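#struct-pred
JK: can someone run the complex with zinc ion? inputs below
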Amino acid sequence: MVRKVKISRITRVICTYGLLTSLSTSIPSHAMNGTLINVASEHVNSEENNTIDISTQEDNKQEDNNQENNNQDNNVPENNPDLDNPDDNNTEEVKEPIYKAVKDTIYVKKQSSVYEEPDTSSKKIGTATLYKKYTRVGIGENGYDQIEFDGGIAYIASSNVTTKKPSVPTDIVDIEDKKYDYNEMKKDLEQLNVYYPDYVTVQSIGKSSDNREIYSAVLGNPDAKKHILIQGSMHAREYINTQLLMSQLEYYLIRYENGTYNGVSYKKMFNEVAVHIIPMANPDGVTLSQYGLNGIQDKKLAMSLKGMQKSSNFARWKANAKGVDLNRNFSFGWTKKAGASKRGSMNYAGAKAESEKETKVLVKYTKSIKGLKTVLSYHSMGNIIYWNYGQTGKLMSKSKELVNLVKDITGYRLVTQSSKSIPYGGYSDYVVRELGIPAVTLETGILYAPVNHSQFDTIWKQNKTIIPAVVLQVIEDN
Ligand SMILES: [Zn+2]
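RT: done, C-alpha coordinates with the ligand placed:
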Protein backbone atom coordinates (compact mmCIF):
# COMPACT_ATOMS: atom_id res chain seq x y z
CA MET A 1 0.00 0.00 0.00
CA VAL A 2 1.42 3.33 -0.98
CA ARG A 3 -0.09 6.60 0.02
CA LYS A 4 0.89 10.19 -0.45
CA VAL A 5 1.36 12.38 2.55
CA LYS A 6 2.53 15.90 2.95
CA ILE A 7 5.52 16.47 5.09
CA SER A 8 5.96 19.82 6.67
CA ARG A 9 8.78 20.15 9.14
CA ILE A 10 8.09 17.02 11.03
CA THR A 11 10.78 15.61 13.19
CA ARG A 12 10.73 12.09 11.98
CA VAL A 13 9.94 10.59 8.62
CA ILE A 14 9.08 7.00 8.03
CA CYS A 15 10.39 5.35 4.95
CA THR A 16 10.64 1.85 3.68
CA TYR A 17 14.01 0.34 3.27
CA GLY A 18 13.18 0.13 -0.42
CA LEU A 19 13.34 3.89 -0.45
CA LEU A 20 16.55 3.91 1.47
CA THR A 21 18.62 1.51 -0.59
CA SER A 22 21.40 3.99 -0.93
CA LEU A 23 21.64 4.20 2.86
CA SER A 24 22.19 0.54 3.41
CA THR A 25 25.89 0.88 4.06
CA SER A 26 25.41 3.34 6.87
CA ILE A 27 22.35 1.92 8.62
CA PRO A 28 23.05 -0.72 11.25
CA SER A 29 21.83 -4.10 10.14
CA HIS A 30 19.41 -4.49 13.05
CA ALA A 31 17.61 -1.37 11.92
CA MET A 32 17.14 -2.93 8.52
CA ASN A 33 15.34 -5.88 10.04
CA GLY A 34 12.41 -3.70 10.94
CA THR A 35 10.35 -2.32 8.14
CA LEU A 36 9.93 1.18 9.42
CA ILE A 37 13.00 3.27 9.88
CA ASN A 38 13.20 6.62 11.58
CA VAL A 39 15.36 9.17 9.87
CA ALA A 40 16.15 12.65 11.04
CA SER A 41 14.26 15.06 8.83
CA GLU A 42 17.23 16.97 7.52
CA HIS A 43 18.43 13.86 5.74
CA VAL A 44 15.45 13.74 3.47
CA ASN A 45 14.62 16.33 0.85
CA SER A 46 11.81 17.58 2.97
CA GLU A 47 11.21 21.13 2.12
CA GLU A 48 7.96 22.54 3.32
CA ASN A 49 4.96 20.79 1.80
CA ASN A 50 7.13 18.57 -0.27
CA THR A 51 5.02 15.57 -1.21
CA ILE A 52 6.66 12.19 -1.20
CA ASP A 53 5.41 8.65 -1.36
CA ILE A 54 5.61 6.82 1.87
CA SER A 55 5.05 3.13 1.91
CA THR A 56 4.58 1.39 5.20
CA GLN A 57 3.55 -2.08 4.23
CA GLU A 58 5.32 -4.67 6.33
CA ASP A 59 6.58 -7.83 4.72
CA ASN A 60 5.76 -6.64 1.24
CA LYS A 61 8.33 -8.12 -1.08
CA GLN A 62 6.58 -6.55 -4.03
CA GLU A 63 7.76 -3.19 -2.82
CA ASP A 64 11.35 -4.32 -2.64
CA ASN A 65 11.07 -5.11 -6.31
CA ASN A 66 9.70 -1.67 -6.98
CA GLN A 67 12.40 0.18 -5.16
CA GLU A 68 13.79 1.79 -8.28
CA ASN A 69 10.38 3.17 -9.14
CA ASN A 70 10.02 4.44 -5.63
CA ASN A 71 13.31 6.21 -5.83
CA GLN A 72 12.24 7.98 -8.97
CA ASP A 73 8.80 8.81 -7.65
CA ASN A 74 10.22 10.16 -4.49
CA ASN A 75 12.73 12.39 -6.12
CA VAL A 76 15.49 11.05 -3.95
CA PRO A 77 18.72 11.15 -5.95
CA GLU A 78 20.60 7.89 -5.66
CA ASN A 79 23.82 9.61 -4.84
CA ASN A 80 22.52 12.35 -2.65
CA PRO A 81 25.54 13.25 -0.51
CA ASP A 82 23.30 14.04 2.46
CA LEU A 83 21.88 10.56 2.35
CA ASP A 84 25.20 8.79 2.21
CA ASN A 85 25.86 9.22 5.87
CA PRO A 86 22.85 10.09 7.98
CA ASP A 87 24.89 10.27 11.17
CA ASP A 88 26.82 13.31 9.97
CA ASN A 89 25.62 16.79 10.85
CA ASN A 90 22.87 15.43 13.08
CA THR A 91 22.72 18.57 15.11
CA GLU A 92 19.08 19.59 14.95
CA GLU A 93 17.32 19.17 18.27
CA VAL A 94 14.84 16.27 18.25
CA LYS A 95 11.41 17.53 19.23
CA GLU A 96 8.99 15.47 21.29
CA PRO A 97 6.36 14.02 18.97
CA ILE A 98 2.90 15.53 19.32
CA TYR A 99 -0.16 13.32 19.70
CA LYS A 100 -3.66 14.52 19.10
CA ALA A 101 -5.75 13.15 21.96
CA VAL A 102 -8.60 10.91 20.80
CA LYS A 103 -10.63 8.07 22.24
CA ASP A 104 -11.90 5.82 19.51
CA THR A 105 -12.04 2.20 18.48
CA ILE A 106 -9.60 1.05 15.85
CA TYR A 107 -8.75 -2.19 14.10
CA VAL A 108 -5.58 -3.19 12.31
CA LYS A 109 -5.52 -3.75 8.56
CA LYS A 110 -3.19 -6.68 9.07
CA GLN A 111 -1.33 -8.28 11.93
CA SER A 112 0.95 -5.52 13.26
CA SER A 113 3.72 -5.12 15.78
CA VAL A 114 3.13 -2.93 18.81
CA TYR A 115 6.04 -1.04 20.37
CA GLU A 116 6.99 0.52 23.66
CA GLU A 117 8.13 3.72 21.92
CA PRO A 118 7.17 5.36 18.61
CA ASP A 119 10.13 3.65 17.05
CA THR A 120 10.39 0.21 15.46
CA SER A 121 13.78 -0.34 17.02
CA SER A 122 12.26 0.09 20.48
CA LYS A 123 11.00 -2.90 22.43
CA LYS A 124 8.23 -4.82 20.70
CA ILE A 125 5.62 -5.52 23.34
CA GLY A 126 3.15 -7.52 21.34
CA THR A 127 1.14 -8.03 18.20
CA ALA A 128 -2.13 -6.38 17.30
CA THR A 129 -4.32 -8.96 15.59
CA LEU A 130 -6.87 -8.68 12.83
CA TYR A 131 -10.53 -8.29 13.78
CA LYS A 132 -9.67 -7.32 17.36
CA LYS A 133 -10.81 -3.99 18.74
CA TYR A 134 -8.31 -1.56 20.23
CA THR A 135 -8.83 1.77 21.93
CA ARG A 136 -6.79 4.55 20.34
CA VAL A 137 -5.87 7.45 22.60
CA GLY A 138 -3.50 9.46 20.42
CA ILE A 139 -2.76 10.16 16.77
CA GLY A 140 0.84 11.21 16.23
CA GLU A 141 2.32 13.47 13.59
CA ASN A 142 5.21 11.05 13.56
CA GLY A 143 3.34 8.24 11.85
CA TYR A 144 2.47 6.40 15.05
CA ASP A 145 -0.78 6.05 16.97
CA GLN A 146 -1.03 5.50 20.70
CA ILE A 147 -3.26 2.62 21.72
CA GLU A 148 -4.23 0.95 24.97
CA PHE A 149 -2.42 -2.36 25.06
CA ASP A 150 -1.92 -4.86 27.88
CA GLY A 151 -2.92 -2.34 30.51
CA GLY A 152 -0.60 0.40 29.25
CA ILE A 153 -0.04 2.71 26.29
CA ALA A 154 1.78 1.38 23.24
CA TYR A 155 2.64 2.56 19.74
CA ILE A 156 1.59 1.23 16.39
CA ALA A 157 2.23 2.49 12.85
CA SER A 158 -0.69 4.75 11.89
CA SER A 159 -0.73 3.31 8.41
CA ASN A 160 -1.69 -0.11 9.82
CA VAL A 161 -4.69 1.29 11.64
CA THR A 162 -8.27 1.76 10.49
CA THR A 163 -11.47 2.89 12.18
CA LYS A 164 -13.53 0.80 9.80
CA LYS A 165 -14.75 -2.45 11.28
CA PRO A 166 -13.57 -5.32 9.09
CA SER A 167 -16.33 -7.39 7.60
CA VAL A 168 -16.72 -10.96 8.79
CA PRO A 169 -18.45 -13.92 7.10
CA THR A 170 -21.77 -14.84 8.71
CA ASP A 171 -22.08 -18.41 7.50
CA ILE A 172 -19.14 -20.17 9.09
CA VAL A 173 -21.13 -23.01 10.64
CA ASP A 174 -22.79 -25.03 7.89
CA ILE A 175 -26.30 -25.85 9.05
CA GLU A 176 -27.07 -27.76 5.85
CA ASP A 177 -24.38 -30.35 6.49
CA LYS A 178 -26.08 -33.66 7.24
CA LYS A 179 -23.04 -35.02 9.05
CA TYR A 180 -21.42 -32.13 10.86
CA ASP A 181 -18.21 -33.73 12.09
CA TYR A 182 -15.22 -33.20 14.36
CA ASN A 183 -12.95 -31.68 11.71
CA GLU A 184 -15.58 -29.25 10.59
CA MET A 185 -16.26 -28.19 14.17
CA LYS A 186 -12.55 -27.73 14.79
CA LYS A 187 -12.13 -25.57 11.69
CA ASP A 188 -15.22 -23.51 12.55
CA LEU A 189 -14.06 -22.94 16.13
CA GLU A 190 -10.69 -21.74 14.87
CA GLN A 191 -12.39 -19.35 12.47
CA LEU A 192 -14.81 -17.99 15.04
CA ASN A 193 -11.85 -17.43 17.33
CA VAL A 194 -10.09 -15.42 14.60
CA TYR A 195 -13.11 -13.36 13.57
CA TYR A 196 -14.45 -12.63 17.06
CA PRO A 197 -11.37 -12.37 19.28
CA ASP A 198 -13.13 -9.92 21.61
CA TYR A 199 -16.15 -12.12 22.22
CA VAL A 200 -15.10 -15.75 22.19
CA THR A 201 -12.19 -17.71 23.63
CA VAL A 202 -11.67 -21.16 22.18
CA GLN A 203 -9.47 -23.63 23.99
CA SER A 204 -8.83 -27.33 24.14
CA ILE A 205 -9.66 -28.60 27.61
CA GLY A 206 -8.17 -32.04 27.10
CA LYS A 207 -7.90 -35.03 24.81
CA SER A 208 -9.98 -38.08 24.06
CA SER A 209 -8.63 -41.64 24.08
CA ASP A 210 -8.21 -41.54 20.28
CA ASN A 211 -6.25 -38.30 20.63
CA ARG A 212 -8.87 -35.76 19.56
CA GLU A 213 -9.25 -32.41 21.28
CA ILE A 214 -12.20 -31.67 23.49
CA TYR A 215 -12.96 -28.00 22.94
CA SER A 216 -14.59 -25.34 24.99
CA ALA A 217 -15.66 -22.00 23.52
CA VAL A 218 -16.29 -19.27 26.06
CA LEU A 219 -18.84 -16.81 24.72
CA GLY A 220 -18.50 -13.46 26.49
CA ASN A 221 -16.35 -12.22 29.31
CA PRO A 222 -14.14 -15.05 30.63
CA ASP A 223 -13.59 -13.02 33.82
CA ALA A 224 -17.31 -12.64 34.51
CA LYS A 225 -18.49 -13.42 38.04
CA LYS A 226 -21.16 -15.81 36.79
CA HIS A 227 -20.88 -18.64 34.29
CA ILE A 228 -23.06 -21.23 32.63
CA LEU A 229 -21.92 -24.38 30.87
CA ILE A 230 -23.57 -26.16 27.95
CA GLN A 231 -22.29 -29.45 26.61
CA GLY A 232 -23.41 -31.74 23.84
CA SER A 233 -22.63 -34.99 22.03
CA MET A 234 -21.53 -36.94 25.07
CA HIS A 235 -23.33 -39.78 23.34
CA ALA A 236 -21.87 -40.55 19.94
CA ARG A 237 -24.98 -40.77 17.78
CA GLU A 238 -26.45 -37.55 19.20
CA TYR A 239 -24.13 -35.33 17.16
CA ILE A 240 -26.93 -33.14 15.79
CA ASN A 241 -26.48 -31.24 19.06
CA THR A 242 -22.92 -30.27 18.09
CA GLN A 243 -24.31 -28.53 15.03
CA LEU A 244 -26.98 -26.93 17.21
CA LEU A 245 -24.49 -25.58 19.76
CA MET A 246 -22.06 -24.37 17.09
CA SER A 247 -24.87 -22.56 15.26
CA GLN A 248 -25.96 -20.94 18.50
CA LEU A 249 -22.42 -19.82 19.18
CA GLU A 250 -22.09 -18.18 15.78
CA TYR A 251 -25.59 -16.69 15.99
CA TYR A 252 -24.78 -14.84 19.22
CA LEU A 253 -21.32 -13.80 18.05
CA ILE A 254 -22.83 -12.18 14.95
CA ARG A 255 -25.32 -10.30 17.13
CA TYR A 256 -23.03 -9.67 20.07
CA GLU A 257 -22.72 -5.91 19.56
CA ASN A 258 -26.25 -5.02 18.54
CA GLY A 259 -28.59 -7.81 19.60
CA THR A 260 -31.00 -7.83 22.53
CA TYR A 261 -33.23 -10.29 24.32
CA ASN A 262 -36.18 -9.12 26.45
CA GLY A 263 -34.78 -5.60 26.21
CA VAL A 264 -31.34 -6.51 27.53
CA SER A 265 -28.36 -6.28 25.20
CA TYR A 266 -26.30 -9.38 24.54
CA LYS A 267 -23.27 -7.25 25.23
CA LYS A 268 -24.38 -6.61 28.80
CA MET A 269 -25.58 -10.18 29.27
CA PHE A 270 -22.41 -11.90 28.10
CA ASN A 271 -20.28 -9.42 29.95
CA GLU A 272 -21.97 -10.44 33.19
CA VAL A 273 -22.37 -14.14 32.46
CA ALA A 274 -19.85 -16.11 30.40
CA VAL A 275 -21.28 -19.04 28.44
CA HIS A 276 -19.00 -22.08 28.19
CA ILE A 277 -19.93 -24.26 25.24
CA ILE A 278 -18.47 -27.75 24.85
CA PRO A 279 -19.93 -28.71 21.49
CA MET A 280 -18.54 -32.25 21.33
CA ALA A 281 -17.78 -33.97 24.63
CA ASN A 282 -17.20 -37.35 22.97
CA PRO A 283 -15.37 -36.64 19.68
CA ASP A 284 -14.19 -40.25 19.14
CA GLY A 285 -17.69 -41.62 19.57
CA VAL A 286 -19.16 -39.07 17.16
CA THR A 287 -16.49 -39.92 14.57
CA LEU A 288 -17.19 -43.62 15.03
CA SER A 289 -20.91 -43.10 14.57
CA GLN A 290 -20.32 -41.01 11.44
CA TYR A 291 -17.47 -42.89 9.76
CA GLY A 292 -17.30 -46.32 11.40
CA LEU A 293 -13.98 -47.93 12.28
CA ASN A 294 -12.27 -45.96 9.49
CA GLY A 295 -12.63 -42.91 11.69
CA ILE A 296 -10.57 -44.40 14.52
CA GLN A 297 -6.88 -43.48 14.37
CA ASP A 298 -5.42 -45.78 17.02
CA LYS A 299 -5.09 -49.32 15.65
CA LYS A 300 -5.41 -50.96 19.05
CA LEU A 301 -8.61 -49.07 19.79
CA ALA A 302 -10.00 -50.01 16.38
CA MET A 303 -9.16 -53.69 16.94
CA SER A 304 -10.84 -53.79 20.31
CA LEU A 305 -13.90 -51.93 18.98
CA LYS A 306 -14.17 -54.53 16.24
CA GLY A 307 -14.57 -57.18 18.91
CA MET A 308 -17.32 -55.28 20.73
CA GLN A 309 -20.07 -55.80 18.19
CA LYS A 310 -20.73 -58.16 15.34
CA SER A 311 -21.84 -55.51 12.90
CA SER A 312 -19.37 -53.16 11.26
CA ASN A 313 -22.05 -50.46 11.31
CA PHE A 314 -21.41 -48.07 14.20
CA ALA A 315 -24.05 -45.47 13.28
CA ARG A 316 -26.05 -46.23 16.43
CA TRP A 317 -22.99 -46.16 18.71
CA LYS A 318 -23.46 -44.29 21.98
CA ALA A 319 -20.25 -44.87 23.92
CA ASN A 320 -16.72 -43.53 23.56
CA ALA A 321 -13.96 -45.31 21.60
CA LYS A 322 -13.40 -47.66 24.53
CA GLY A 323 -16.97 -48.85 24.68
CA VAL A 324 -17.89 -46.91 27.83
CA ASP A 325 -21.12 -44.93 28.12
CA LEU A 326 -19.73 -41.63 29.39
CA ASN A 327 -23.08 -40.64 30.86
CA ARG A 328 -22.81 -43.61 33.25
CA ASN A 329 -19.17 -43.01 34.12
CA PHE A 330 -19.40 -40.03 36.52
CA SER A 331 -18.84 -40.48 40.21
CA PHE A 332 -22.19 -39.61 41.75
CA GLY A 333 -24.22 -42.77 42.09
CA TRP A 334 -21.80 -44.69 39.91
CA THR A 335 -22.44 -48.40 39.94
CA LYS A 336 -21.29 -51.19 37.76
CA LYS A 337 -24.85 -52.39 37.75
CA ALA A 338 -26.05 -49.24 35.99
CA GLY A 339 -26.12 -51.01 32.67
CA ALA A 340 -24.53 -53.78 30.71
CA SER A 341 -21.49 -55.64 31.95
CA LYS A 342 -19.72 -55.64 28.61
CA ARG A 343 -17.86 -52.86 26.82
CA GLY A 344 -19.70 -51.43 23.88
CA SER A 345 -23.07 -52.63 25.09
CA MET A 346 -25.70 -50.04 25.90
CA ASN A 347 -25.07 -48.19 29.19
CA TYR A 348 -21.79 -49.91 30.09
CA ALA A 349 -20.53 -47.75 33.00
CA GLY A 350 -16.80 -48.50 32.84
CA ALA A 351 -14.48 -50.42 35.15
CA LYS A 352 -14.74 -47.67 37.75
CA ALA A 353 -16.12 -44.15 38.12
CA GLU A 354 -14.25 -41.58 36.00
CA SER A 355 -12.24 -44.33 34.32
CA GLU A 356 -12.48 -42.50 30.97
CA LYS A 357 -10.34 -39.62 29.74
CA GLU A 358 -13.37 -37.75 28.43
CA THR A 359 -15.10 -38.02 31.82
CA LYS A 360 -12.02 -36.75 33.62
CA VAL A 361 -11.69 -33.81 31.22
CA LEU A 362 -15.29 -32.77 31.78
CA VAL A 363 -15.06 -33.15 35.58
CA LYS A 364 -11.86 -31.15 35.78
CA TYR A 365 -13.18 -28.39 33.55
CA THR A 366 -16.56 -28.15 35.28
CA LYS A 367 -14.89 -27.89 38.68
CA SER A 368 -12.45 -25.25 37.40
CA ILE A 369 -15.17 -22.71 36.57
CA LYS A 370 -15.54 -20.33 39.50
CA GLY A 371 -19.08 -18.98 39.72
CA LEU A 372 -20.69 -21.73 37.66
CA LYS A 373 -24.45 -21.24 38.09
CA THR A 374 -26.17 -23.56 35.64
CA VAL A 375 -25.37 -26.52 33.39
CA LEU A 376 -27.31 -27.68 30.33
CA SER A 377 -26.61 -31.05 28.76
CA TYR A 378 -27.82 -31.76 25.24
CA HIS A 379 -28.78 -35.29 24.29
CA SER A 380 -31.13 -36.87 21.77
CA MET A 381 -33.92 -37.77 21.54
CA GLY A 382 -37.55 -37.42 22.66
CA ASN A 383 -38.27 -33.68 23.11
CA ILE A 384 -38.08 -34.21 26.85
CA ILE A 385 -36.19 -32.76 29.81
CA TYR A 386 -34.64 -34.61 32.75
CA TRP A 387 -34.19 -32.44 35.78
CA ASN A 388 -34.93 -34.29 39.01
CA TYR A 389 -31.82 -35.87 40.47
CA GLY A 390 -33.04 -36.17 44.04
CA GLN A 391 -31.88 -32.69 45.06
CA THR A 392 -33.65 -30.92 47.92
CA GLY A 393 -34.11 -27.51 49.55
CA LYS A 394 -32.84 -24.38 47.83
CA LEU A 395 -31.12 -26.41 45.14
CA MET A 396 -34.46 -28.01 44.29
CA SER A 397 -36.27 -24.67 44.08
CA LYS A 398 -33.53 -23.24 41.85
CA SER A 399 -33.67 -26.35 39.70
CA LYS A 400 -37.42 -25.89 39.30
CA GLU A 401 -36.97 -22.27 38.21
CA LEU A 402 -34.46 -23.41 35.62
CA VAL A 403 -36.43 -26.33 34.27
CA ASN A 404 -39.65 -24.31 34.02
CA LEU A 405 -37.82 -21.73 31.94
CA VAL A 406 -36.26 -24.39 29.70
CA LYS A 407 -39.67 -26.04 29.29
CA ASP A 408 -41.30 -22.72 28.36
CA ILE A 409 -38.64 -21.95 25.75
CA THR A 410 -38.38 -25.37 24.11
CA GLY A 411 -41.87 -26.73 24.63
CA TYR A 412 -40.31 -30.04 25.70
CA ARG A 413 -42.05 -32.26 28.21
CA LEU A 414 -40.71 -32.68 31.74
CA VAL A 415 -39.92 -36.26 32.65
CA THR A 416 -41.56 -37.24 35.89
CA GLN A 417 -38.89 -38.82 37.99
CA SER A 418 -39.30 -39.91 41.54
CA SER A 419 -36.98 -37.99 43.85
CA LYS A 420 -36.06 -41.42 45.19
CA SER A 421 -34.99 -42.70 41.79
CA ILE A 422 -31.42 -43.87 41.99
CA PRO A 423 -28.84 -41.80 40.16
CA TYR A 424 -26.52 -43.81 37.95
CA GLY A 425 -23.33 -41.93 37.23
CA GLY A 426 -24.71 -39.36 34.80
CA TYR A 427 -23.11 -35.95 34.26
CA SER A 428 -26.18 -34.02 35.42
CA ASP A 429 -26.43 -36.24 38.52
CA TYR A 430 -22.83 -35.32 39.27
CA VAL A 431 -23.30 -31.58 38.67
CA VAL A 432 -26.46 -31.34 40.75
CA ARG A 433 -25.68 -33.68 43.62
CA GLU A 434 -21.92 -33.46 43.89
CA LEU A 435 -21.35 -29.82 42.92
CA GLY A 436 -24.71 -28.45 44.06
CA ILE A 437 -25.37 -26.64 40.76
CA PRO A 438 -28.75 -26.75 38.95
CA ALA A 439 -28.54 -28.80 35.76
CA VAL A 440 -30.96 -30.13 33.20
CA THR A 441 -30.67 -32.65 30.40
CA LEU A 442 -32.49 -31.79 27.18
CA GLU A 443 -33.32 -34.52 24.69
CA THR A 444 -33.72 -33.01 21.21
CA GLY A 445 -35.37 -34.53 18.16
CA ILE A 446 -37.74 -37.42 17.68
CA LEU A 447 -38.08 -40.93 16.29
CA TYR A 448 -34.52 -42.12 15.95
CA ALA A 449 -30.90 -41.38 16.82
CA PRO A 450 -28.91 -40.22 14.94
CA VAL A 451 -31.71 -37.70 14.56
CA ASN A 452 -32.49 -37.13 10.90
CA HIS A 453 -31.03 -33.83 9.74
CA SER A 454 -34.41 -32.78 8.35
CA GLN A 455 -35.33 -32.00 11.97
CA PHE A 456 -32.54 -29.48 12.41
CA ASP A 457 -34.67 -26.40 11.69
CA THR A 458 -37.26 -27.46 14.24
CA ILE A 459 -34.63 -28.20 16.88
CA TRP A 460 -32.96 -24.87 16.13
CA LYS A 461 -36.21 -22.94 16.61
CA GLN A 462 -37.03 -24.78 19.84
CA ASN A 463 -33.63 -24.00 21.33
CA LYS A 464 -32.69 -20.70 19.68
CA THR A 465 -33.23 -18.45 22.70
CA ILE A 466 -32.19 -20.88 25.42
CA ILE A 467 -28.84 -19.15 25.92
CA PRO A 468 -30.03 -15.57 26.52
CA ALA A 469 -33.05 -16.80 28.49
CA VAL A 470 -30.91 -18.82 30.90
CA VAL A 471 -28.28 -16.08 31.09
CA LEU A 472 -30.96 -13.54 32.01
CA GLN A 473 -32.30 -15.83 34.72
CA VAL A 474 -28.79 -16.21 36.12
CA ILE A 475 -28.31 -12.42 36.10
CA GLU A 476 -31.60 -11.80 37.88
CA ASP A 477 -30.96 -14.48 40.49
CA ASN A 478 -28.88 -12.92 43.21
ZN1 LIG B 1 -27.59 -39.12 25.26
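RT: quick notes.
The pocket of zinc ion is lined by residues 235, 238, 327, 379 (CB under 6 Å).
The mean pLDDT is 85.
JK: thanks, will look after standup
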